[in-house]
Structures are given as C-alpha cells and as structure tokens.
Amino acid sequence: MAVVLDLINNPRPRHPEKAHKPDSAVLPKPDWIRVKAPVSRGYAETHALMRANGLHTVCEEAGCPNIGECWDKKHATFMIMGDTCTRACAFCNVKTGLPAALDASEPQHVGEATAKLGLSHIVVTSVDRDDLADGGAQHFADTITAIRRHAPSTTIEILTPDFLRKDGAVEVVVAAKPDVFNHNLETVPSLYLSVRPGARYFHSLRLLQRVKELDPTMFTKSGIMVGLGEERNEILQVMDDLRSADVDFLTIGQYLQPTRKHAEVKRFVPPDEFKALEKIAYAKGFLMVSASPLTRSSHHAGEDFARLKAARLAKA
C-alpha cells in the first residue's frame, strides 16, 4: 500500500537516473552563502505572470538561490523547450527524462511576457534537447525573433546547450543575432566524466570559438562552478582556454548541491578567493568578470551587459 501511495504522490521521479545512488554528504553552509526566502510582492507578481503564460524559468527549475532578489526586480531567465532535459548532469536540478514535443506558440509567449515585464535585457536558456535534429536551434532563433517583434528595444542574452553532434545548429542561432551568446563550460576538464558526462569540454570550447568566427562583434560569455574538487591551476587553465576562444565575459560561482543524490560540495570557497580569481581573470584579458559565491550566469545580467558594452568601448 505504501508503494502505491508513493507512486500516486510521485508518479515520475525528478531524477530517475540518480534514485538509486547513495546519499552524499552535505556540508553546512557558511554565513556568506545564505539568502532570504522569496516573499516580496514583486516576486509574487513575476510568479503569477510566468504561470499565466505557461512559461518555465531556470530560476525555479534549477533552484537558483537568487530567485527572490531577481523576481522582485521583475528579472527572470526564461527556460524554453520544456522543463525536462535529455542529459543527466550530476550538478543540475532540472528534471531528466524524455521531453514532450516543442510548443510552437512558446516563442510568441516569451515575446509577450518580455513586453509585459518591461524588460530592458532578457536571458533565455533551455534544457538540452538531444532528441531534436537541430538540438532546438531553430526554436532559439524563433524566440529571439519573437522578442524583437514584441520588445524591439530589449537586448537579448541566450544561454544555450552545447548542440553536440548537431551540425549547423550554432549557425542558425548566431544568424538570429542575439546580443550575448552564452554557453557554460560548468567545470574543469578533469571533472567532466563525473559532473557533466554527456558533454565534451573541447566541443563546448569550440562552440564558443565558432560564435566569434561567425560574428566577431557578438559578445560571448561562459561560466564555471567551483567547490566540486577542482584544483586552482585547473581554473586558471580554463581561463586561458576561454581567452584563446576570444570569450569576453566570465562568471565564476559556488556550486550548491540540490539534493543528497547530486554531486557533493567538496568545499565552500571563501569570498576573498573569488576576488583573487576575478583579478586574475581581468589580467588575462576578459572584458567582464563576475566572481562571487552567489554569482550565476544570469544574475545581474542586464547591469553586467551595460558594463560589458562600456568595457569594449573603453578598450577600443
């Protein structure tokens, strides 16, 4: 009877591939990593708008610690192509499984929501869709087009999957002319097999390089998490690899463990080490660097984009 009730209450596990893994240790969070629960009116209004338009956000699906702050300011990162990912990364809290068919009306809904929120800058990401012939590249392009139509003054930042084995996909997305093309490396190469097993480090690096080859004026961005067991010299090598690919903007944040079934936090990196990494990254030539325990790819994205543009102008 207990099994039957469990199936009724939880008909589909969020992470079926992790269900039988042993629980990992959970380190107590230090004071610098704590955030307040989201309770503001702005948060509630943003939540209502997302539900009314049937939209998903990575803020909710990935359990972002900054959701209260961002949603209070009417900032949200739209997650297109559904809420179910075909990958099973050890760090990620997004559902895994076989996704549903694409919603052809979704680009229109994202465009309308962008206009309703009055966003000056929007971030659009997605689940991995290895089941699609183009990995969802055309859906990204259609979403960018819809946002331009409904909110022509809004600048657009996209955070894409790696489009692994999807020939021509990155060309389709770049042709749609987003203002910022972001793809996260997530971690150092030595941890890919355990942390990001469905991806390939040098493929992701090549994708970022290809964006610059197609459009040298497009801003490119990437990010990594720390606290997974990486060595400092490995982080510095990732910085060098990204600069070799002419990436403009680097984000570095603390990995936070969603559940005991996910990869464990090996270490909470103190704020002064983030500041040191930020200084090194600027010295290596990045136009913009955001490095702190609570840094996430889309946190303060609008303000950071303005600083990114200013940095390019100053360099010129």
Automatic annotation (TrEMBL):
It holds the Pfam family Radical_SAM. InterPro entries: Aldolase_TIM (IPR013785), Elp3/MiaA/NifB-like_rSAM (IPR006638), Lipoyl_synth (IPR003698), rSAM (IPR007197), rSAM_sf (IPR058240). One of its GO terms (biological process) is protein lipoylation. One of its GO terms (molecular function) is metal ion binding. Its main location: cytoplasm. Binds 2 [4Fe-4S] clusters per subunit. One cluster is coordinated with 3 cysteines and an exchangeable S-adenosyl-L-methionine. Its EC number is 2.8.1.8. Pathway: Protein modification; protein lipoylation via endogenous pathway; protein N(6)-(lipoyl)lysine from octanoyl-[acyl-carrier-protein]: step 2/2. It is found in: Cytoplasm. Residues 71-287 form the Radical SAM core domain. [4Fe-4S] cluster 1 binds at residues 59, 64, 70, 298. Keywords: 4Fe-4S, Cytoplasm, Iron, Iron-sulfur, Metal-binding, S-adenosyl-L-methionine, Transferase. Coiled coil: none annotated. It catalyses: [[Fe-S] cluster scaffold protein carrying a second [4Fe-4S](2+) cluster] + N(6)-octanoyl-L-lysyl-[protein] + 2 oxidized [2Fe-2S]-[ferredoxin] + 2 S-adenosyl-L-methionine + 4 H(+) = [[Fe-S] cluster scaffold protein] + N(6)-[(R)-dihydrolipoyl]-L-lysyl-[protein] + 4 Fe(3+) + 2 hydrogen sulfide + 2 5'-deoxyadenosine + 2 L-methionine + 2 reduced [2Fe-2S]-[ferredoxin]. Gene3D superfamilies: Aldolase class I. Belongs to the radical SAM superfamily. Lipoyl synthase family. This is Lipoyl synthase.
